[in-house]
Amino acid sequence: MTTARDILKQQILKVKDTQFDQLALEVFNYQATHNSLYKTYLSLIQVHPNEVRTITDIPFLPISFFKTHEVLAEGEGRRAEGSSSATFTSSGTTGSTTSRHFVKDLDFYLQNTVKGFEQFYGDVRDYCILGLLPSYLERSGSSLIAMVDHFIKLSKYAQSGFFLYDHNRLAEVLQQNKKGNIPTLLIGVSFALLDFAEQYSIDLEGVIVMETGGMKGRRKEITRTELHDILKKSFHTKAIHSEYGMTELLSQGYSKGEGIFYPSPTMKILAREITDPFAYQKNHKTGVLNIIDLANLDSCAFIATDDLGRVYKDGSFEILGRLDSSDIRGCNLMVV
């Protein structure tokens, strides 16, 4: 029997920009019915689903709820035959409370990550994927590791894989790939890319070098601009790419340079005013980011983050830091 959830999942994977807002409203109505936590939240702030007619009417759930509650749409929650579930957790800092994201259908998440990547970079199978993500590999429950591992498995190149601290081998593969004109993605956490850059000054022009942010307490925090300048100089490349994602989201944003991100097809970014969580900020003005992530069908697709940023008319966005009053999490953004 095909359920409303099944239909929404199919629509989400095929969503076009012109369909996004209408589909977001359908997902809102689904979650207002099937997610008891979100339903209670709507009641407490006195918003009735019938009053919601545009995406700017939709209330966004504070991201902190992922630390304190099970954010889960209970209705129609049976996993599809052959699919697997997962629990993604944030890395956190010592003594801090970590976020938990309960994923009913891991296969759906992985499908969506491929769709998001290929929107900007083309067929993932055509890339040699090299992961330099030691802090993520050293714990369980990382959504980033699940995504990159999936990309590695899809890649047609046998040299794709994770490189924990084996910088010598990583340098060899990068140089061999460059000589062989093999399209290559090097994706790494900021501190690990800096460690690698200090050991090896090699020409990586033509290689996509992508940072995922975060020093994880391993190095002094620096601005994204400073990080990119160091990496560009060491790797002799004109641009450093970036990936924007978090435990509470199942979609990603990507930047091909200069810190300007574009959301994947299942994601839309809005900015709210800093002093009024229910008022929206104008384009190009600094605000706090609200994120619609349609892939969060089984949790909550409407997340009020603690990230400061600017949203531009074309849908792109910039990350400027975090609210001073928000908790610092393990994957905290670099200061700007």
Description:
The protein is an alpha/beta fold and about 325 residues long. The protein has ten helices and 14 strands. About 40% of the residues are buried.
Question: What descriptive keywords fit this protein?
Answer:
12-stranded mixed beta sheet, 14 strands, 336 residues, alpha/beta, two-stranded antiparallel sheet, 10 helices
Produce the secondary structure layout.
Layout: H1 4-13, H2 20-34, H3 36-44, E1 61-62, H4 65-68, E2 86-89, E3 100-103, H5 106-121, E4 128-132, H6 134-137, H7 143-154, E5 161-162, H8 167-179, E6 184-188, H9 190-199, E7 208-211, H10 224-235, E8 241-244, E9 253-255, E10 260-263, E11 267-272, E12 287-293, E13 302-311, E14 317-322
Parallel strand pairs: 1-13, 4-5, 4-6, 6-7, 7-8
Antiparallel strand pairs: 2-3, 8-9, 9-10, 10-14, 11-12, 12-13, 13-14
Q: For the record, give the distance between the C-alpha atoms at the N and C termini, rounded to a whole number.
A: 50 Å
The rough form would be described as globular
Return the average pLDDT rounded to an integer. Answer: 91
Radius of gyration: 20 Å
Q: Please count the helical segments.
A: 10
Give a concise summary.
The chain has 10 helices and 14 strands. The chain has 336 residues and is α/β, with parallel strands linked by helices.
